[in-house]
Amino acid sequence: MGTFSDNSTRDLTTQVTWGSLDGNNSTIRNDPGSQGLAYGAGVGTSIITATSGIVSGSTTLTVTPAVLESISSISPAYPAIPKGTTQQLTASGMFSDNSLQDVTASVTWSSSDTGVATISNTAGTIGMATSVENGAATITATSGSISRSTTLSVLWISRVSGSTNRLNSVAWSGTQFVAVGDYGTILTSPDGVTWTTRPLDTNTHATLLDVVWTGTKFVVVGECTYSPLAIKSDTILTSPDGVTWTWQTAASQKDLYGIAWSGTKFVAVGESGTILTSPDGVTWTSQTLSTAIAMYAGAWSGTQFVVVGRGGSGYGPIFTSPDGVVWTSVMPISGIDTFPLTGVVWSGSQFVVVGFGGKVRTSPDGVTWTPRYAPWADTLQDVAWSGSQFVAVGSTYRINTTASTIITSSDGATWTWQQVSTGTETLNGVAWSGTRFVAVGQNGTILTPP
């Protein structure tokens, strides 16, 4: 702004010549359209001059450090680590001078769930995340009003089963897991980590589909076997210890897909509406629901059985019974239950049913059912309850590949997808030991939380 001899003032920005007495800290432009535009080149002060002929003026320009405008990334983007391990996270920030800088040590880190993962703000370990328990936590880096978040998953990890056969089901006895599968595969483990193969003496080609523990014995059911003379026989085995197995006969000559225990009675379900009941796993009585359906799984609530399966047109039928003999059909939810239902569990207050199409249903009584949303699940095969958490397992098809799927829920209504260390196999069964979940699946896959 210039002052003239008549005491008038005018804007002379475009008419003077601009200069900086310290080009290391700032520069100032004289080109048309940008006259008087100063740039901070370095932190410090500069004397800026404006000259017109012999007249000049000056001011001091102070260049301050560039300021953070955004946290552009947290690396790694979506970390997944086993329980009890650590992962260093770093944050990068975009500054007002368009520079990208490491801001790991200058931001404040936080975790949305310190029961799953913690993260350090202590000098020397800033940004170091530590996994505490299976699940997912949102990790946030904050500087003033600027923040950025990522999700850290504490993942399930693969265990060595010693088998490449498909595993279909797993149960816990109080001292060991028993997993069963194709070609007569039976595996035992005291902890879900170390597994031992238990060969069958006969019918080693039997497809074993489900296993349950009664308190005194394991009972396994599966697809029918055939003798060298093509005689069809039921597949029912019992064992007091998971090591020595005895073949039982039911004379149904039907494939059996699932089994439940009430405390006094077994209910086995299978093809063509087959229902078998037994007080001891040895003597069996045949019932029939409908030859047009196949029942895949069952559970006992303390007052009734609930069994689920596949109807003739592919829908998911549900039946209830107080005794395993008299059964009542529960009609599927209109327009919703168009997929088979494959797994069911009782939590003490509600049934949870899962199935194809990622279907999840809950019911307090086995009669009135509510549909629930399950993320990242195309097929759910089984579900288990720990006393505080449901775990459902299955598979998801994404970009021409199958991914192992594990989802968890504390209430059966809201479900969270869990990360696994390897994940290309369909998971078919899951069980809870009191301290650990174990999931089993294709090609001998066994997964546990760390």
- In total, how many beta strands? 45
CA-CA gap between termini: 72 Å
Shape: elongated
Q: What is the number of domains?
A: 3
CATH architecture of the largest domain: 7 Propeller
* SS class: mainly beta
Q: Unreliable stretches, pLDDT < 50, 5 or more residues?
A: none
Largest sheet descriptor? 4 strands, mixed
What is Rg? 34 Å
Would you state the CATH class of the largest domain? Answer: Mainly Beta
Q: Please estimate the helix content.
A: under 10%
CATH topology of the largest domain: Methylamine Dehydrogenase, Chain H
Residue-averaged pLDDT: 89
What amount of the residues lies in strands? over 45%
Strand order in space, largest sheet? 9-17-16-13
**CATH H-level name of the largest domain... which superfamily?**
YVTN repeat-like/Quinoprotein amine dehydrogenase
What features would you describe in this structure?
This protein is mainly β and 450 residues long. The chain folds into three domains: 2-63, no CATH class; 68-154, Immunoglobulin-like, CATH 2.60.40; 157-448, Methylamine Dehydrogenase, Chain H (7 Propeller), CATH 2.130.10.10. It has a four-stranded mixed beta sheet, with no helix packed on it. Strand 24 and strand 25 form a beta hairpin.
Quickly list its features.
4-stranded mixed β-sheet, 450 residues, 51% strand, Immunoglobulin-like, Methylamine Dehydrogenase, Chain H, 45 strands, single chain, 0% helix, 4-stranded antiparallel β-sheet, elongated, mainly beta
